[in-house]
Amino acid sequence: GIISGNKIRGNAVDEHSSANAIHLWYCKNLSIENNSVSHHRDGIYLEFTDSSEVRNNLSEHNLRYGLHFMFSNDDIYANNTFRQNGSGVAVMFSDHIDMVENVFIENWGSAAYGLLLKEIYDSRLIGNEFVQNTIGIFAEGASRVEISRNVFRENGWGIKMRGSAMDNQITKNNFSGNSFHVASDAKTNYNRYSENYWDN
Fold it and tell me: Which residues, in sequence order, are CB contacts of 13 under 8 Å at separation 6+?
C-alpha cells in the first residue's frame, strides 16, 4: 500500500476527543511518503505495522505525537520533519527500527521531547537533528540502539538516559548549546560514549 502526497488538516483541541491524521493498524509493507499532517492527536500512528517506510513527511502542530510507533518492527522512518508537536516521535515496544536524517524541532513543553525511546531494541538512530526541544532524546528501557552522527543543538537536555537503558552506543554526535548535554538517573553508566563533540 502507498499513502502519498496528501495534506491532512484537523481541528483538534484535546486528545480524548481527537483522532489521528494517518492511522495504521495491523499493516505490512506500506509506504507513507510526502504527506503533510497537522492539528490532530497524532500525525502518523502505527500499531502492529511491520516492514514499512515513513519518508519525507511533515508532521506539525499535533497535540500528542508527530509520529507514534507501537508494537511495530523492521520499519524505517527517514527525512521527515517533526515540528511543534506535543512531542515529536514516540517509538514504543518495537525493534529493528531505522531512524535516519529526520529533523525534530521546537517540540517544547513541560513533558515534551523530540524523541521517546521506550522498550525499543536493536535499532539505529543516524544523522538526525534535534533542535530546540525540551529533551532531544528520552530513553527508557532502550537497549542495543546505535545513536550516531546526530546533532543536538539548543535543547534543554540533549539526551536523558534512564538507568533501564543499557548497551547503547552513543558515538560521533555533536552536542552544542544545550542546557545539559546528557543526563542519567543511574550511578553506573551501562552505555558506551565515544568520539562525540561537546561544545563545553
Answer: none
By CB neighbour count within 10 A (0-12 exposed, 13-18 middle, 19+ buried), where does 77 fall?
A: buried
pLDDT at position 13 is 85
Q: Which amino acid is at 103?
A: V
132/154 Cα distance (integer angstroms): 5
Report CA-CA distances (Å) from 141 to 48, 92, 99, 150, 160: 19, 10, 17, 21, 12
Question: In this predicted model, what pLDDT tens digit does every residue of 106-158 receive, in sequence order?
Answer: 998 777 899 999 999 999 999 999 999 999 999 999 999 999 999 999 999 99
> Which amino acid, one-letter code, is at 71?
F
The residue assigned the cell 511518503 is 33
- What string of DSSP letters covers 52-117? -EEES-EEES-SSEEEEEES--SEEEES-EEESSSEEEEEEEEESEEEES-EEE---STT--SEEE
pTM of the model: 0.95
Residue 43 contacts residue 24 (beta carbons within 8 Å): no
